[in-house]
Every structure is written in structure tokens, then in C-alpha cells.
Amino acid sequence: MKDLIAGAQPAALVRVGISRAPSARAALREVAAELIGAAPSFVFLLLPPRLDLGEFEAGLRETFLDTTVFGCTTAGQITPEGYENDALVALAFPASHFRFSSQLFKPLSPVAIEATARQAERMAAQFRPTAGRNRLALVFADGLSKQEDVFVAALHAGLKDVPVFGGSAGDGQNFQTTYVLHAGRFHTNAALLLLLETDLEFRGLGFDHFQPTERKMVVTGAVPEERLVLEINGAPAAREYARLLGLPVETLSPIVFAENPVLVRNGSVYHVRAIQQIHESGGLTLLSAIDEGLLLTLGRGKEIIETLDAGLDVCGEHGESPDFILGFDCFLRKLEIEHKQLAADASRLLREHRVIGFNTYGEQHLGVHVNQTFVGVAFFRPKGIAPF
Q: Which of 2, 36, 165, 385 is deepest in the core (most CB within 10 A)?
């Protein structure tokens, strides 16, 4: 049995099971044993890409017979120890504090915008509210579907005043296939929507560590449905991006992309449009929506550990610290942190701020799909519930 944070801190309301066992069945047995007595409304599983999914499905039928289980594959996990890459994480949301409704959207691509909004609206209407409780939605989408922008916007329209948070499923740094888990099966080209009701207060978080520079660029050639930029400023995209950085194009790499993203302005707010890789055409594949004519601004990073600490420093209505923070942290942030040899510092902050979650291929924050952003939900104990 594990509390959210080991050591002197009080136990969190959400119970956490962790396994680093090499096989799917063994890992499931270990986390199930750690959750005995948790009385969950549902369990959410965060999977490392190394586990065999066929064996995992069979193991689920042996270990979680009477429990509703959801989950997704990840690009890394945030455990009670901080950042990890190979751990199976199980979150047991207690039935005494959480009620849920779920919906699988499959196929996800292409998104039927009106139908998705209507389906979300019907789901919210059928999930009758309880007086004095709070509602939020969590969404977990195939991180390689290239559909999250449109899908989350459609959900936001259908759910109206219900805030939407979440993360895109990952596949380590393989970028081959990502999955969500629903009704005992893994699904690709799909998205999972969980509508939650809770007596816990919550606050949404969303922050990055980039600021705009003076270097601008215009997308002059693109394949929007593939999130592929072919030309920037009339030149091959990768070559022009490298020129703006003052680098040879052959030196472009995942860490260069992580430290030098492009930003898109929406009113007074800049959102990150992360670069995934160089396309064989000499273009750039992005992790968010892109189109011809779009004005991009090169981003410059601020101190990532300081912004992480400041962003996680949230309080409840009466100045109390969160009981726990459910976190969706872009894998490119973790890549930059590891490259700068700051993983130990970041893990310490994640522990101190009681964060549990995973590294994503994209983040969903209040109806907007973003990249290289930490998105989270900080939950606070209801009045009268002791912290021990």
C-alpha cells in the first residue's frame, strides 16, 4: 500500500499503486495488491510502453474483476518519486469522493465536430448533478491522431461550463502507436472522456516556460491535416527554422526543438506549437494544428525549474495546500529537463507539490490543445476531512 507521497506528509485521498515489474501480469498483481481496501469509484492506469498490451488485457481480467478501470499509454510517468520512464502507475479515485461517467469516442479521426459536441452535451445532461458537488472533465486522446485540437474544442462546446483538462496518450519516444484503455480493451484512433463529480474543491493549472522573441515567421506551405509545415517564409521549413536559430540544419534534434519551439498568439496569450521532427520532405512535423498563413513567433525559454515551482505553488480557498495534483506534463519538457541535468530538482518539486500523472504528447487545457505545457488539476480536501 502506498500513499501519494511517502514519508512524513499526510496520506492523500487518492491511493496510488506503483510497479516496476518486468511483465504486465506481474505489474498488475503488484498494483492491485497495493490498492486493496481502497474502495475506488474507478482506477486509472498509466502504462509505460514496454508492457505487452495483449498480456495486460488478459491480466486485467484476473486482477480487477469488480473494478472499473481506465488508462492510457504514456511517454513517462510522474510517480510519488517524481519522473520515471518504466513504472506502471495505478490511481484509485475513492468512491466516497468521486462519481463518474465515461464515453469512448472511436474512431477519432476524422472528428465529427457537431456529433461530438452533441454526444458530450447528452452525456453531461444524463449525468445528473448533485447539489454541493463540483464537476470537471478529463480527456485522454490518441496522441498520434492529429485530431486533439478539433476534438477538444468540440467537447468544450458540448460540455459548456464544465472545465476540460487532460493529456494525449504517449509511446515513450517511439512515436509509433498510442492507446487508451476502456472496458478492458486498448483502443487506438480513439479518445476517452471521463466526466467527474466530486466533493473536493479543485483548481486548474496551465503554464509553460517560454516567452516570445522578435523573430517571426509565416507558414507559406503546409499540409494541415498532417500538421506538416512545408515552407516558412517561402523557404523549406527545416532550413529556414535552422537559419533563424543560427544553426546548420543537420544539427536540428529533439532537444533543439524542445528548447526552441514556435509560438502562436491568441489575443494576448501565446500558445506553444511544439515541433516533433523533421519530415523527409524537409518540412517540420508539429504536435498541434497548423495552417498556411499562420504567423509564428520563435520562443525563448525561461528558467524551467523556477517556473515549475511557481506554477505548482497553488492554494485553496482558505490558503491550504492541495491534497494532490493530477498532472499532464509534455514529454518535451521532461526531455529538456533531463538534457540540462535537472531531473533530480524537478522530481523533488513534483514530490513536494504532491503531483501524480504522466508525460504526454500534448495537453488539453480548458478547451485548447497545447504543447510543452504543464496542465494539471489541484484537488483540495473538503471541509471536515482530516489530513491524516
A: 165
